[in-house]
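Contributing new complexes? Match this layout with nicotinamide-adenine-dinucleotide.
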Amino acid sequence: MQQAQIDRLRSAVIPAQQLFVGGRSTQASGNARLDVVSPIDGRVLTTIADGDATDIDLAVSRARQAFEQGTWSRAAPAQRKKVLLKFAELIEQHALEIAVLGVRDNGTEIGMAYKAEPLSAAGTIRYYAEAVDKVYGEIAPTSGDVLGLVHREPLGVVGVIVPWNFPLMIGAWKIGPALAAGNSVVVKPPELASLTLLRLAELASEAGLPDGVLNVVTGRGASAGEALALHMDVDALAFTGSGAVGRRLLECSARSNLKRVHLELGGKSPNIVFADVPDIKQAAKVSANGIFRNSGQVCVAGSRLLVQSAIYERFMDELLQVTAKLRVGDPLELTSDIGAISSHAQLRKNLDAVARAEEQGATRLAGGEQIRIESGGNFMVPAILADVTPAMDLWREEVFGPVLAVTRFERQEEAVGLANATPYGLASAVWTGSLSRAHRMVRAVRAGVVHVNTYGGADITVPLGGFRQSGFGRDKSLHALDAYTDLKTAWIAL
Ligand code: NAD
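Output block (do not edit by hand):
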């Protein structure tokens, strides 16, 4: 990836966007449009259609038709694999173009966006393509006079609703297994970052995915999103986003057709550093990245740091040094370590969280100010707040920004108590040189992921999902296929 290539792509004019329904770009039923505002300079890049219930209805009916026709849903798994592999290849071929488009939309630093968005999405699609002709049904261990078979069938029409931080990566975690299993899909992208998912649907078509199998309806959550959640002909809804919207979706399911709802929600993940950490420098560096990459707009961000008292000063020294070196800047410059905050509203929320933490008694050690105001974009210096207690909002509430809450502890049990003092349970980390302590902590911390001596980077081979109010869905790995298939029993008298 060269700066010159990025510079060429960043100025490309983005035409006004339509919906993608039934295999083609389609006008929305109404004329309402939403501005796409650049988080880099505040300018309007283009507009997207503000789709509504009528548009969702059309997309769901095209998806249903495609499903019933069976060209995809009943295709041999090896055939689906062929198309999905081509799809992955096309995403890779267009990776830089897609990454730059996405950064212009949501502000993630390009180095991270390139890997985490198109390349990760391509890898995910390929993983499920490769898996789908290797997953077998079952023969039940019955008595000899019957045959019990367990088939796995696609569900039908799957709705996908994702957030703006990594729309492609998270979208692919749902679209990949859903398509591989034979379902049709209707995606409602986040209103703050819709462009790359629209592009993804075009590439899927180009790869040979039959018309109507993958549809994208842009629009607001409260209208297009809710229409999808309430639709009587949607069989499942795969969601990543906030807890408040997750709750709403469960209600929508209860009020409509009891569609299954898979929820991946927020987190307030603890990063616990014991005094026997093998390499303090490395732990500080990875911890800084674990909270500040993509400006902390990462569901698994290690937003609560717990450091054992014996090394507290040394560790914090290292952490402050590495954080001071992180360059916040234009996300399309390769020299920037941290890009823009996705929206002005989110920036305000971050700044308010810092101010409130200070009011409640936390000590600001670094950052927390808005910078580059003259650019018109949304930029903020990563903030580190110490002496944060479980009574403070910053210990319990997700900010979803570059704001780190720090505290110290003496004993292991105390660390466990502090770590678990939150309604969430998404990710966590433990830094220690002791194998037994590492295993004991993996058991004790209530979270869907416990990293040991690292933070982040768990690949597609392992599941991702939360405990408690971080949700109960599981993206990634072969387990994700369970969310998009039904088990059917055949009981045959012999
Ligand atoms: P959000 O919940 O506001 O929006 C997520 C999506 O839901 C968007 O597409 C939005 O349009 C849609 N939506 C909003 N209201 C809706 C409604 N009433 N009905 C249907 N759809 C609706 O979240 P966000 O601000 O986009 O993203 C940030 C949140 O996402 C954070 O809480 C973060 O932790 C979480 N997140 C979780 C994971 C994970 O894997 N667990 C990953 C990334 C982000």
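Reviewers usually confirm one structural detail per submission. For this one: Residues 3-265+471-493 form a domain with the Aldehyde Dehydrogenase; Chain A, domain 1 fold (CATH 3.40.605.10).
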